[in-house]
Every structure is written in structure tokens, then in C-alpha cells.
Amino acid sequence: MANAVAAVAATISEIITENLRRSATVLEHKIGTKTLEAVLTTQQMAEHLQVTKRTLANWMSKGYVPYFKIGGVVRFRMSDVQRVCDGNSRNAER
Description:
Layout: H1 2-35, E1 39-40, H2 42-49, H3 53-62, E2 68-70, E3 73-77, H4 78-87
Antiparallel strand pairs: 1-3, 2-3
Helix pairs in contact: 2-3
């Protein structure tokens, strides 16, 4: 009887451990997906906005388009640019 109880306890422990491992893997993936947003180059952002790189540079200098630099390299977060576009939409609710 004691052996049967120990075997059941071991099986339950294995099931719980495996479920916790799977849950941790799913959470790590969700966290990684949310925190590691892809960034765009100047060329990619200009293409996305359907403007020239020169126009994009003008908008950047006027503060219309948010960007950041790493070293001397300019990058854009799509979520930042989208937020500005949404706020400047003529159809936006005021």
C-alpha cells in the first residue's frame, strides 16, 4: 500500500513539474515577444510611410516622427510612430 501511494505521489509530482515547465516556457515567450519589439531602419520607415528618406529626415528634425539613436544609427519603433499617427489623425476622437 505504501509503495502504491508513493508511486501515485511521484506521478502527480512529475505531472505538476511538467505543467510548470510548459507554463514557464509559454510565459517566457509572451514576455520576450512583448519586450523585444522589432525596430526599423530609416529606409524601412520611409517605405512604410510611403515618403522619401529626405521627407522622413525633415519630419524627424521637426519632431514629427519619434526615433532613437544607438551610436550614430537611427532606428524607429513602429509602436511609437503608430501612436503619433493615431494622435494626428483627422478622424481621431477628440
